[in-house]
């Protein structure tokens, strides 16, 4: 499997959320009227009302679907809201069974914030003024695999499969922000850099995403069936199996139709941009 590209797989039915605007004719999937990130954000508001998708109500509560762009966006919202008033402290703790790298960070007081882009989430640990030992902020980039999510729980009630744990500092009840991943396909990397080769986020960078697709319609990726092309993260960063199935279902496009049928739309799409 190529870096930054997802494996194709079958999905039996559409989901309930679609990040790409579809209120135009199916014959012109990227055509007028042009939608922006604000339109997509409106759709997200309804999706955010379903916290069980990625924000478990209790330890070990499973996700309803594999985490794709919307789920990582939800996870970043959860981390930012849940951790906004919290002060974390001490070392970052990794489970002994995880093959991901240790996180060499220790601070007496630090904050945690999150930002999502496509299928990745950046977590930033920022020491507070006066914290010891003195050090620079540290960023990690997570990819959730098949079952990754974040949970905030009491430190004495850690959920199973909590492979990375950030503990709050005293005083007050000790809590733990946990990266939970039952199947252990999730990954984190130190440094905070987005994975090379991924295109603009389909949720938050819609105009750049659209232009990137139109500009590259001659790429050999679009010689493949559209169900395969939609998983190419160079062009569709954040799209996975369930979103692919929903997109094709709602647009009434046969999944094995060659993706090159978009090419006649290219010049018209550029003119409208």
Automatic annotation (TrEMBL):
GO terms for molecular function: DNA N-glycosylase activity; DNA-(apurinic or apyrimidinic site) endonuclease activity; nucleic acid binding; zinc ion binding. It holds the Pfam family Fapy_DNA_glyco. One of its GO terms (cellular component) is nucleus. InterPro entries: FPG_cat (IPR012319), FPG_N (IPR035937), Ribosomal_uS13-like_H2TH (IPR010979). GO terms for biological process: base-excision repair. Transmembrane segments: none annotated. Gene3D superfamilies: 1.10.8.50, MutM-like, N-terminal. Residues 67-186 form the Formamidopyrimidine-DNA glycosylase catalytic domain. This is Nei like DNA glycosylase 1. It comes from Bos mutus grunniens.
